[in-house]
Amino acid sequence: MVYLHEVAHCVANIKYGTKIKPHGPQWRQEMKALLTPLMNLDIFPEDMLVALRSYLKAPKAASCSHPHLTRALRQHDPPTEKVPLEQLPVNSEFMLNSRKYRLIRRIRTRVKCLETGTNRTWLIPKLVLVAHLRHS
């Protein structure tokens, strides 16, 4: 996905010049044009095709901005003990980037968390993988 994303930038800049918006209509058009020929079972498994079809309706700048696609891609990642933040119950403690947090509440696509070392609150994307410590 990252490779196709960058190739779409290259093609869009060649076709339309460098003054276009980085993830504007020209980039989205080129991303669709690059990905569409790859949409078959010889290249992607069925679960990925379903997610990619959904993504192609309105490609985002980052594939992680599309929850369905992120979840589908993760199904093909190597096993990990980390879990998506969205799966933890309220008051759970977890580690992210060597910092300890407590989940306070969910807010649509993000989760309000308290960094326990500094008492600062942060909004963290709900699909981020974290190391679950315990439930308070």
Structural notes for this entry:
This protein has 4 helices and 6 strands. The chain has 136 residues and is of the alpha+beta class. It folds into 2 domains: 73 residues, no CATH class; 53 residues, SH3 type barrels (Roll), CATH 2.30.30. A 6-stranded antiparallel β-sheet has the order 1-6-2-3-4-5, with no helix packed on it. Helix 3 runs antiparallel to helix 4. The termini are far apart.
- Which percent range describes the beta-strand content? 25-35%
Radius of gyration: 18 Å
Overall mean pLDDT: 93
Percent helix among the residues? 25-40%
In N-to-C order, the SSE pattern is HHHHEEEEEE
Task: Give the key terms.
alpha+beta; SH3 type barrels; 33% helix
What's the topology here?
Blueprint lengths: L1 H15 L8 H11 L10 H11 L10 H8 L8 E2 L7 E5 L2 E9 L2 E6 L4 E6 L3 E7 L1
Antiparallel strand pairs: 1-6, 2-3, 2-6, 3-4, 4-5
Helix pairs in contact: 1-2, 3-4
